[in-house]
Every structure is written in C-alpha cells, then in structure tokens.
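A further point concerns the way the authors explain their paired sequence and structure data. Nothing conveys this as quickly as seeing an actual entry. An entry of this sort, consisting of the sequence and the corresponding backbone structure tokens, reads as follows:
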Amino acid sequence: MADTGLFAAGLVVVTDLSGVLEEGTTMSEREIVAIIPARGGSIGIPRKNIADVCGKPLVAYSIEAALAARRVTRVIVSTDDEEIADVSRQYGADVPFLRPRDIAQARSLVGEAMSFTISSLYEQGYCPDVVAVLFCTHPFRPPWLIDTLLEILVQGYESIVTVKKIPHQPLFYIGSDGALRQAGLREQQDGLAESVRYRSYGLFEAFMQSPQPFGKYLYPVDDPVCLVDVDEPQDLEYARWLVANNLFPE
C-alpha cells in the first residue's frame, strides 16, 4: 500500500461536511496539478505500473481519472522509466522530465520524488496553487471523488488525505479502578477492548502551496473497490476481475 508519510498520523477524522461546503460555494480559479508517481522498478509484480488491466496499463486508470476531474488543470507522471513515460503520454499525461534513478528505488521515499518533481516544475516556471498526489496502485478512483476532495481542500485547509478504518483490539485496557488489565473475551463482548482507528491511505492526497487558516482534513473512504491496492499478483487479478465485471464505481 502507498503509505507515504507525507501527512502526520493521529489526527481527527472529519466526516461531517456541513459548514465546510456552503450551498452555492464554487472553487475560484486555481492551478491544480495531479502528480502520479510511477517508478520503473517493482518487486511484487514486475513492471507493475504498466501491467495490463483489461486492455489498459495500470497507470492509465489514474491518468484518466485525473484528466476527467473538472478541477485538475494538469496531469503529470513522475517516473524514472522511459517506457512508462511513453505509455503515460499515450494516455494524455505530461512527462516533462525523468526522475533520477537514485530516488526511484524500492527504499526511496515518495517525499523525495515529490520534492524533486515540484522543484523541477518550479525551475521550469510552473508554480501550481495545489498539488495532488495519485498513486497508480489505487486504480479505482472516480473523478467525482477527486473533485469533491479538492473542493474541500480549498475551503482553507493546508492538506487533505484519504484514510481507512482499522479495527483495533488492544491486548490491555485500563479498568474502572485504574488498573491495567488484559483484555479477555468478556471485555471484547462488552465492547471495552475494541475501538476504531484510522490510517492514511494513498487513494488521494493533496496540499496547498500557500499558508492556510486550517490544518489537515482527513476524509474516510469505505468503498471496498476504491480501497483496492495493487501490490501483489493476487491484487492485480482482483483488479482485472472488478473491471471485467463492471464493478468499478464510476
């Protein structure tokens, strides 16, 4: 899974949009770039980012979603690989330069790739207001969701990131007497030993390039198709099955 570390954990998840998007509110004109990191090397699935998914390479799903989003003004693929660059251009993405191989390794941080890409764009005179990050290992990302999240972001938030629920059952809990106790079957049945946690999920992340009055906005996603993450061969087969059976939520 694409867990980038671009955003800090332990934040409050906002699920109620009331008061965030007022009726009739529209986004002022902003330059919004969607950057799709897609390095050439991959471990679980060789050449994963251009693996065929029902007639299209995996990276094409993220490119097409970004191009279809009304709020995105430019779509860029950040890659170190000439073949991925050519494929990406065929599907309408811009690949203005290649990423150095030393920041496109299995242990390379996505933050390094993003910093290089944004800095290189600045050197070319391109300074977007908003940077969105779309990982192509998450192919099922409907354009309306991209637009919705961008609409939320520009209401004054520094950044926005999708999150998913993680059920959590601690081994210990603090009893009413203040003592630390081991969670047993009874406590689990009583609901004392189970709570819900959230973790960042690389379906969508975006941030403003200028200071904003509010902090980070966490947007929970629970659609099982949107949460598909192509990491291992079985994930790729599942993605193909979903597309073949028209289960991608357009």
Notes: The chain has a mean pLDDT of 81. The radius of gyration is 20 Å. The chain is about 25% helix and 25% strand. The longest strand covers residues 195-208.
